[in-house]
Amino acid sequence: MRIAITFNIKKEKENLVTIKEELSPKKDFSKYLNENLISNYPERLDDTYAEWDCEETIDAVRSALEAGGHDVTLIEADRDAYEKLKIIEPEFVFNLAEGIGSVSRESQIPAMLEMLNIPYTGSDPVTIGICHDKARCKEILSYYNIPNPEFFITDDINKINGNITFPKFVKPLHEGSSKGIFNSSVVNNTEELKNEIIRIKECYNQPSLVEEYLTGKEFTVAMLGNGDEVRVLPIVEINLDSVPEGFNKIYSYEVKWFFDTRENKLDIFKCPAEIDPELYSLIEKVCKDAYKALRIRDWARIDVRLDKDNIPNIVEINPLPGILPDPADNSCYPKAARGVGLNYVDMINAVLIEARARNVI
């Protein structure tokens, strides 16, 4: 079959190298804490392209599809993508594109493909757009009584009053891949909350999503399939005890991209999660409920955190999960897939098989 891969290629920034050296796990973190730089240095980290894929990932997906017997073409999801799709007319598209610019950027390629009547992997433009608007996503979850942290959205610090209980967790309303989520995202008072709202507005030009900060364990759950046949792959537990001392127990941008590196990998994931069967089943259920309520297709990764009563809460929905091919990179979806015997080639082709089956009339 003639397949096109739609993608956005990550652009490396030179200034990240310097920051990476400064934040090396071999360094002493105390100077950042003592000099009160924790809340300041995230502004120095350019996470513009954090959602986009590196060449290694795109090449690995292409190789996997070719190993499945397909003829593969690469189409970058830029301004020329629509015309390329019209000319090439692939029989199917494996969509990895995060999109460009707008709040609904992840919906751009799926919308083009639907206009051109080209079948593709993954969720439709409506579902992807909803998942990318974290507040809209939470509203739907709440409607279906699917647990998620209480929240409000704002970009106006003048509307912050003294009735707020702390701690709170603050993140951009329309980002993924831990963009905008730093150690400073956990706030313990009104001043810290206002600082985060200002930072997010200035750096990302969007409102903040302010949530109740959940203190329990965190998990990430890889999903594969459709309808009642959707599979929950082995649940990955995030070992927050491995986060460097003095940092908040969250899987922040610093932890994800600088502390947990291929060269200095943290012991941060347990797969499968070492939890009792009842809790394991409860996490599976809440993820299946969210998958169904949001009408997700083919695959996704869902992040879950326990509240003070050990109730699993949905904290993030990723209908375009990260799929770094090297096991040393600690990428959660491939890690979960390996837990059921799916290597990278098998995993990519399994997603394609699910999408093709869904498109059979």
Structural notes for this entry:
The structure is a single chain. 34% of the residues lie in helices and 17% in strands. With 361 residues, it is of the alpha+beta class. Helix 3 (55-67) packs across helix 12. The radius of gyration is 20 Å and the shape is globular. The protein starts with a strand and ends with a helix.
Helix proportion:
25-40%
Number of domains: 2
Number of strands: 13
Which class best fits the helix and strand makeup?
alpha+beta
CATH class of the largest domain: Alpha Beta
Topology:
Blueprint lengths: L1 E6 L6 H9 L7 H5 L20 H13 L3 E6 L4 H8 L3 E4 L12 H8 L9 H8 L1 H10 L7 E4 L13 E5 L13 E2 L2 H15 L3 E5 L5 E7 L6 E2 L3 E3 L14 H7 L9 E2 L6 H17 L5 E8 L5 E7 L13 H7 L5 H16 L2
Parallel strand pairs: 1-2, 1-3
Antiparallel strand pairs: 4-7, 5-6, 5-7, 8-9, 8-10, 8-12, 10-11, 12-13
Helix pairs in contact: 3-12
Task: Give a short summary of the structure.
The chain has helices at 14-22, 30-34, 55-67, 81-88, 108-115, 125-132, 134-143, 190-204, 253-259, 277-293, 332-338, 344-359, and strands at residues 2-7, 71-76, 92-95, 151-154, 168-172, 186-187, 208-212, 218-224, 231-232, 236-238, 269-270, 299-306, 312-318. It is α+β, with helices and mostly antiparallel strands and 361 residues long. The chain has two domains: 2-132 and 142-149 and 214-359, D-amino Acid Aminotransferase, Chain A, domain 1, CATH 3.30.470; 150-213, Dna Ligase, domain 1 (2-Layer Sandwich).
Output the keywords.
361 residues; alpha+beta; D-amino Acid Aminotransferase, Chain A, domain 1; Dna Ligase, domain 1; 6-stranded antiparallel sheet; 4-stranded antiparallel sheet; 12 helices; 13 strands; globular
